[in-house]
Amino acid sequence: MTTTITHSWYMMQRQLRNLARQPAYIAFTIVSPAIYLLLFGALFKKVVDLPGFGADSYINFLTPGIVVMSALYSAGWSGMGVIQDLDRGVLDRFLVSPASRSALIIGRLTQMAVVTIIQSVIIIGLGLLVGARFPDGGIGLLALVLSAVLLAAPFGALSCAAALMARKEESVIAAVNFVLLPLTFLSSVFMSETLMPHWMQKVALFNPVNWSVQAGREALSSNADWSVVCTHLGYLVIFALVCAWLATQAFRSYQRSA
Asked: What is the model's pTM?
């Protein structure tokens, strides 16, 4: 157990150093959600006037959604790093080393959690700058960041699993686009769930993206129902454990075929 933790720490540092060498990528991952926040915040500003929307400020409503969406997409593309390691033979070299096999996955997911936290803090700060207000912030903001991390972990694991199984950039890109975009619009990231078509509301009940958004948004409400927050976070934990198991199985499958 100690070895796995130590090796995971080293793998996380490796991933962070690799990321630090790509300033353009870092810039785009920060600028993109900022554009979504500013553009959608202005475009749909008046949507709160619709009967039944349930919010007084769209920027307050949108900020948690953008935090969650950014975590989702960052995690979804994590499999591309696995593809690069496969193409360069890095993963095969790790397999013939004493490195803990679990650490190869855990380290990457831990690095993603660190990135998600930093990204979430930046987006929340930008939201506050453009007018978002969370009177009972504090623990609510922590719950929002936690919900984003718990969403990033399973989708990062699934992305890694897809990369290990497909082993082609084009296949991973197609899979990511096929899954993430529908999940985003089948959630309450941009629109109140009460105004969604009935069938979308039903789908949203089983959508992990919606669990994360609802947990973060509820935690930031003035009279937060923490049973709702904890229930949704619990769903995300279970989903993360299942996806981590699937990623481990994909890794073992690759190891057998290598």
From this structure: 0.89
Residue 27 tokens read as 């810039």
Paired tokens of 86: 């496969």
* pLDDT, tens digit (0-9, with 9 covering 90-100), for 144-193: 999 999 999 999 999 998 998 888 888 888 888 899 999 999 999 999 98
Identify the domain containing residue 54 by its residue range: 2-257
Cβ 62 vs Cβ 162: under 8 Å: no
DSSP characters over the chain: -HHHHHHHHHHHHHHHHHHHT-HHHHHHHHHHHHHHHHHHHHHTGGGGGSTT---S-HHHHHHHHHHHHHHHHHHHTTHHHHHHHHHTTHHHHHHTSS--HHHHHHHHHHHHHHHHHHHHHHHHHHHHHTT---TTTTHHHHHHHHHHHHHHHHHHHHHHHHHHHH--HHHHHHHHHHHHHHHHHTTTSSS-GGGS-HHHHHHHTT-HHHHHHHHHHHHTSTT--HHHHHHHHHHHHHHHHHHHHHHHHHHHHHHHH-
What total number of domains does the chain contain? 1
CA distance 28 to 30: 5
Number of residues that this document lists for the chain? 258
Q: Residue 45 corresponds to which amino acid?
A: K
